[in-house]
Design a protein that fits this description.
The chain is an all-beta fold and 145 residues long. Helix content is 0%, strand content 39%. The protein is built from no helices and 10 strands. A hairpin with an 8-residue loop joins strand 8 and strand 9. It is flat, with a radius of gyration of 16 Å.
Length: 145
């Protein structure tokens, strides 16, 4: 993926996450846009409420660094956060499936992604602003107890 972007729209059919192909001459050539996810409903009412928030591409571990990235994004006014998973590893296939990671019942802030325990797998941190909570998700394989 060359460039990842999202817009911030109140209308679900207009809200989306996009992937762009950067052309050889980025100043003058057309940038090809791919819609990776759309129809993100804004549930939070009020001024300046819209969806989605910032989208971040990442690899769950060092072993997956040669594969297509996953994409996480906060829904902002949708009150949910999402994970996009590539349908295939074909570089010409820009199809992703979307799943809800968490429904917060409030504004979802900007997601942070980092391997905080140095185990080779990233963790995702999802803030729920009005609830005063940050939820954490790890891509580490489960351990046996």
């Amino acid at each position: 993926m060359d460039l990842l972007a999202s817009n911030h729209q109140h209308e679900a059919l207009q809200s989306a996450v996009f992937g762009y192909e950067i052309p050889q001459n980025w100043k003058t050539d057309d940038w090809k846009r791919h819609v990776l996810s759309t129809n993100i409903t804004t549930r939070k009412k009020g001024d300046n409420q819209a969806s989605p928030g910032l989208a971040l591409a990442f690899h769950p571990s060092k072993e997956t660094s040669k594969m297509k990235p996953l994409i996480a994004f906060g829904g902002d006014g949708s009150e949910e956060s999402y994970l996009l998973t590539p349908v295939s590893q074909d570089p010409n296939d820009w199809s992703y499936t979307r799943q809800v990671m968490i429904t917060t019942g409030c504004t979802v802030g900007q997601i942070a992604i980092e391997d905080i325990n140095n185990d080779g797998y990233v963790e995702l941190f999802i803030p729920a602003y009005e609830n005063g909570v940050v939820s954490a998700f790890s891509f580490s394989p489960p351990t046996e107890n």
